[in-house]
């Protein structure tokens, strides 16, 4: 399972890539807005900047909800860089846009997926990735990870090549669960990336090694 960062923050992306642990990026209008990006033009500048830092897939979402506008925007987004993936929602208009854009060879990330049926429809419409939103299902009091499990199981039994991208992950346990289930990708906030690498025994071990060296050599 490869890790993507779910952010539009350039510093976070640069840090993740420098550490060698980030293979791609996902963004959406909410994440863009939190970086002060509010229209497609500015979003294009931000996404192009991200694609210069990250070699892997960078998902950029359309800013509209009707099929015709999503198709227009998807075509524009696809020109921003060679590694851009167009994110479209799991709606009737979204599936229509997926069908048109995927036929043109544009890779699609089916977003806002909350059911196995929606995932199956994305397959028919030509999505390359499907993004089940785990945390938002957890928020309703239902186990979001079971949707990832269902989709992975169905795709495996049906020999479906669409990649499962576990999204709306909120903590490190989500990441481990997604990996055990067999998700191909997990997209995580920068905060979760930092939490994943943190362990008190690692910190204590680093301090102890340094202290032991100082005790022997007498200097730092
Ligand atoms: O990848 C989807 C993500 O941005 C949504 O996360 O925490 O807003 O549900 P969240």
Widest beta sheet: strand line-up: 1-2-3-4-5-6-7-8
What percentage of amino acids are in beta strands? 15-25%
Order of helices and strands: EHEHHEHEHEHEHHEHEHH
Rg result: 19 Å
Ligand inventory = SN-glycerol-3-phosphate
Percent range for helical residues? 40-55%
Helix/sheet category:
alpha/beta
Distance between the termini: 39 Å
Question: Average pLDDT across residues?
Answer: 97
Largest sheet: 8 strands, parallel, barrel
Low-confidence sequence ranges? none
Number of strands: 8
What spatial form do the alpha-carbon principal axes imply? globular
Number of helices: 11
Q: What does this entry look like structurally?
A:
- The chain is an alpha/beta fold.
- The mean pLDDT is 97.
- The longest helix is centred in the last third of the chain and has 18 residues, at 200-217.
- It has eleven helices and eight strands.
- Strands 1-2-3-4-5-6-7-8 form an eight-stranded parallel beta barrel, surrounded by eight helices.
- It has helices at residues 10-18, 29-33, 40-53, 67-78, 92-103, 116-125, 134-138, 145-157, 172-181, 190-197, 200-217, and strands at 2-6, 24-26, 58-61, 84-89, 108-113, 129-132, 163-166, 185-188.
- Helix 5 (92-103) links the parallel strand 4 (84-89) and strand 5 (108-113).
- It is globular and about 70 Å long.
- The protein is 53% helix and 16% strand.
- Bound molecules: SN-glycerol-3-phosphate.
- Residues 6, 26, 28, 133, 135-136, 167-168, 170, 187 line the site of SN-glycerol-3-phosphate.
